[in-house]
Amino acid sequence: xxxxxxxxxxxxxxxxxxxxxxxxxxxxxxxxxxxxxxxxxxxxxxxxxxxxxxxxxxxxxxxxxxxxxxxxxxxxxxxxxxxxxxxxxxxxxxxxxxxxxxxxxxxxxxxxxxxxxxxxxxxxxxxxxxxxxxxxxxxxxxxxxxxxxxxxxxxxxxxxxxxxxxxxxxxxxxxxxxxxxxxxxxxxxxxxxxxxxxxxxxxxxxxxxxxxxxxxxxxxxxxxxxxxxxxxxxxxxxxx
Length: 240
Description:
- The protein is mainly α.
- The protein has 13 helices and no strands.
């Protein structure tokens, strides 16, 4: 059985590629943070405490739209809800005698990528492996956001606007592959686009803030999809 020190070094090694990817993604988030009025330090702190691209983008978008604190909190919870499921799966990977403190520290940074390398760890997961991956990945995320804001404050406004498109490209890269392979996902994506457009033009919701509209649409569409198109046992085995 590998020692904690060995597991930590192995985690750092596996976390370095993740850190490089995080830096690039977080750089575009920094542009969005700059547009929302965040300073470089504020954006970096936000990234260090909310290491999630979708959650952070929701925060920056809602702040730009003038949303209230509770709207930001609820939307961040909704956007990051999948990490609750990942944490439940990862908890089964840990040894039963793993102390609560280690479980809480591991849960702090259950991102898609950290979850992926941790769940692939052979045998029972040593928390120090995940700590190593986090030690490499988290600084990449925070520094990427920091420099995104710094560069956004230096570059011309037109160029900053052009760089902001990179964030939308990132989300398209996330939704296009599964939408291309699954007609249900494709239909839900198109439905979400249409519903968002209609909700912004519907007089009943015209006076509602964009943050509340986004929360309502997210909950309603995802709930309807879960009820109408549940994942079957065979699909679940593929996902696992």
